[in-house]
Amino acid sequence: MDFGIFAVLAQDGITNGAVYALLAMALVLVFSVTRIIFLPQGEFIGFGALTVAALQSGQFPRLVWMLMAVGVLTFLVEIGSALRQRRYKPLPRRHLMWSGIENLAYPTLVWVLARGLEWQGMPMVVQILFTLGITVPLGIMLYRVAFQPMAEASVLVLLIVAVGVHFAMLGMGLFIFGPEGSTTQAFTDWSAEIGALLVSGQSVVVLGVSACLIALLYLFFDRSLYGKALRATAVNRKGAQLVGIGTTQAGRMAFGLAAALGTLAGTLIAPLNTVGYDTGFVVALKGFVAAIVGGLASYPLAAAGAVLVGLLESYSSFWASAYKEVIVFTLIIPVLAWRSLVSGHGDEE
């Protein structure tokens, strides 16, 4: 290996690590706020990339049908919940009205926009924003239907539910998108040579967007009221409830942010790789390894672990390409062993 190959592999590893960092921070956010290991994160990677690819090719984004179906299911769940509580208090008509607007009227508006506008010639930023308008509400509805009714269950029960939701979304993804993969248009054709290193414009865009998103997340958690509420819920769920922070709203916000980060990660890797409905699962697992390095609690350590995972994957592909996935996922074993030795053990709540 000469310096040129070393530099190219480092560039690829850091680029992939930037994407894994977004996924790792999303997983840390969801787990710290809701105690849910967000296994369906990978589906949002594939769904987001395939939706952008459909918009760019002039096809109808079929994910809208899933948004409408889940919206109807969410509205029915809201009605059922309201009827169960009717014996204790009047039927919350205003709440049901807003639920109808969010879960029925909004998906219908998205369907009208998807049918009525010519998305093929629009800027890629607009296409990505429209995709986020589909996937973010989908993530919030997913929390309302699958996880909110058992928000106080144990971590093991929530993990089992997450596994079930993952397989359900995987099956729906196959039904909606089919087995074929797609790629999206390149962000830029720019490239430059710095010595022996060829700097790709795609890598620069991925690193720049990831850095901007990480900075925005830092400002959101450090400066905004909603971000501080999420941090308080992550630190002490019961204490947050006692001071008036709605943990249900915090859970929905966490799922919405995680869906947005997963979608953006999918759009970042789609110009570089062919993405299918099931491609995101392996990518999300690598983000999970990075989140484990951060102990599912620390955002900086999760970001650092993501870069480590990206570099390890890149250099493993050079030295032992057949075992690169095994090497990456084996990283979780010494991390867990080290944390088991240095952390205290207490009774489960």
Descriptive report:
The structure is a single chain. The chain is mainly alpha-helical and 349 residues long. 74% of the residues lie in helices and 2% in strands. The chain has 14 helices and two strands, in the order ααααααββαααααααα. Strands 1-2 form a two-stranded antiparallel ribbon. Strand 1 and strand 2 (197-200) form a beta hairpin. Helix 1 packs across helix 11 (279-293), helix 2 (41-56) packs antiparallel against helix 5 and helix 3 (63-84) packs parallel to helix 5. The model has no long low-confidence stretch (mean pLDDT 84).
Instruction: Give me the number of helical elements.
Output: 14
Determine Rg (CA atoms, Å).
21 Å
The succession of helices and strands, N to C, reads: HHHHHHEEHHHHHHHH
Shape: globular
- List the strand order in the largest sheet: 1-2
Contiguous runs where pLDDT drops below 50 for at least 5 residues: none
Structural category: mainly alpha
How much of the sequence is in beta strands? Answer: under 5%
Helix content: over 70%
Oligomeric state of the chains in view: single chain
Distance, first to last CA: 51 Å
Characteristic terms for this protein:
mainly alpha; 2% strand; 74% helix; 349 residues; 2 strands; 14 helices; two-stranded antiparallel sheet; globular
